[in-house]
Please model this.
Amino acid sequence: MTYRVRLEMFEGPLDLLLYLIQVNEIDIYDIPIAKITEEYLACLATMQELDLAVAGEFLVIAATLIQIKSRMLIPAEELEGEDLPQEDPRRELVERLLEYRRFKEAALTLDELESRQQLLYARLGELSPPVAEGPLQVTLSELLRAFAAIVQRAPQATALEIAPEAITVSERMVMVIDRLALESPLPFTALFDVAGTRVMLIATFLALLELLRRGLVRARQSEPEGEIMVYRAIEGSGGDDGHPA
Amino acid sequence: MDTLPDVEPLAILEALLFVSEVPVTMERIEEVLEGRSRAEIVGLIAGFQERCRQGDRGLLLVEVAGGYRLVTKPEVAPWVQRFRGTKPAKLSKAALETLAIIAYKQPITKPEIEAIRGVTIDGVLKTLVERDLIRILGRKPEVGRPILYGTSRDFLEYFGFKDLSELPTLKEIESLAPAAAGKETSDEAVGDAGQPG
Amino acid sequence: MDTLPDVEPLAILEALLFVSEVPVTMERIEEVLEGRSRAEIVGLIAGFQERCRQGDRGLLLVEVAGGYRLVTKPEVAPWVQRFRGTKPAKLSKAALETLAIIAYKQPITKPEIEAIRGVTIDGVLKTLVERDLIRILGRKPEVGRPILYGTSRDFLEYFGFKDLSELPTLKEIESLAPAAAGKETSDEAVGDAGQPG
Model:
């Protein structure tokens, strides 16, 4: 093997196998299992040095390869049942490879479409479309994520019982407004003191949600995965400070 | 940006005004249309406004708050209103969170929901009741006999569940938790380790 | 709406397309432009597209996800990108593969996707749900009642499909039944490599 293979290049064991089949110019319908197994294991050996978390997935296919290889070593004469056509031990693996390859190709098509679509910019949503008539428009995913965020925020119920002497949400609301009065917009993350306690982080986050709900601040994300920016909404807004439970 | 396609500047101007969420300042236009003088850009803007005046155009370029922005013409407002008026309404984030808590913790009282969310929820609760997504299940037999809330049949229909047992479990949800939330958890570790208090 | 101003329908169409955050369906246009036949509206759309073709226009009317939406022309993308300051993030290869499987095999469960890709996909699934490219369709009526996933409307928009029927057809798997069965013995390499000693 003269080529060097880095396992991060592959989307998984099947991807690696397809690669080996391709560089060796092998007919996928007639894979020389011993040769491929050997190369595959050699690749795994380089991976072990990397100690990748995905090693398990690659090992599953390694085991499959070895199993097929041993089944193919049984001489045909020993399986005499003439009337029964012999099932090729490789068949199931080949079918998996073919199926995987179809989707790998489909993914390439999607990739091209994605690039093409990314040249077309649509308008982002309005700042705050009010209107509350007509049917609802919420996806289940949105609901789930809302709750997932809560679950993550509060693994133990006590974390949300804001101790009387400690931080309160209303205090944090004032803090957020003050920060934004000095500088707006601010990156979402800038509002959170990394050194702060978990309660502090939660209180700040709840304060931010509450301010958003009241329309005192706005959060915008100019693109998916982009940095979320927090804006002060119009003027100082001090008057109505927090009075959460 | 090395070789740019040959595009009429008016087309670029239209695209910028279209995608911007806020009024576009003259400075931004100059920055993006690199190499054009202010006078040229003023001319472009006038040209654009001129084109908007045509009867088959529905937009207007207005100068507001130190910038330029596209808005719909006043004469098309009745249709825009009609269009907007029938738009499906989205639930606010607060409403969603509250609904999620009720779905998973029902029957639950208002103070209990507020304890979880850390804010008062009167407005949100009203919206949810009005929209028939939640209903009153009864009263909790304790001091003050607070009202117990639960989800309604409309809730199930809306999210396409046959019954409540179809709600994904907490574990399933956690595996879908957004990355940001995951980050918070690691912040927790930081906080714990560096416990300042 | 009693007395409406006299406005050219093209102007109204442009305004509606401009204010909408999602693709506007033919039905919505019919609703708002009350009293116009579908054929008339189709004509309006064609007229609008025709006008967009002019070199001084920066927008394009595309048909996507069951509706019509305005987007910037591809040739102005470099300036819009400069204006926005960022390039849109691309999906990872793993995400695209997973998405392809879900798109063609929906409704499908996580274990079924993992069986095809040969890897676990928790992280990828999370990303796809987060970006609203996939959605939960329900549960499979089998042991464990696993969640069934499918693509969302955002998926159609993201890739520019009108509907799922626009997905490119998958390459068919050639039938291997007869060919593979007879080839057992041709695997000469097996013996050689397999018996080193």
Remarks:
- Chain B has ten helices and five strands.
